[in-house]
Specification:
This is Orotidine 5'-phosphate decarboxylase. By secondary structure, the protein is of the alpha/beta class. Helices cover 45% and strands 16% of the residues. The chain has a single domain, classed as TIM Barrel. It contains twelve helices and eight strands.
Amino acid sequence: MDRTSQIIVALDCNNRAVADAVVKQLGDECRFYKVGLELLTAVGPDVVKDLVARGKEVFLDLKLFEIPNSVAGAVRAAGALGVSMVTVHGMGGSGIMSAAVEAARDFPGLRILALTVVTSMTDADLTDIGVSDAVDKQVLRLARLAQRAGCHGVIASPQEVAALRSTLGPDAQIVTPGVTLPGESPAEHARPGTPRAAVIAGASHVVVGRAVTRATDPVAMFRFVRASLTP
């Protein structure tokens, strides 16, 4: 895969002007952006439409967790916007994930990715919600469930990529938020790793945010991340 296409830049902000400025600065360097709940709620779906109109791919990170009919409706709405990826929550179970996959069939370019365990969670957090297994075991359990439901791939931290690639095979999409550059603080991510380590382990895509979007020179930082992916 082309290294540029493996990098998804997260537009994690609540301001359309800030998001537009990042996209303008990066220009043709970046082809793939993540739009999450914060930006979508703050400014609405037009930000997604405009990215698609500019020829960008969009990862719409909704983490859908609702009754199957509502999830299917949201997936169809995402497909109509022209996004390339949308997330459902693996903890929602097979019914939710299967509904999402079925709804995506009318949009050949739309991939359904199942969130396994969010990158901020630890073993103790899982215990709090009644899950006795460690994070790594829960990630693999949900990934297998997602694959059986027909999902195109999963979302997980860099630390689980190798096990996931071995479990899911060569064709699954494995998208990794929680990547940090050498020397960078992991912030809220409990299970971080570098973009390079994630790709070497088998990640299909890495999601980078503030390291690029808040850099003094976002283009230079994007190029640095891209260069780091080359073995």
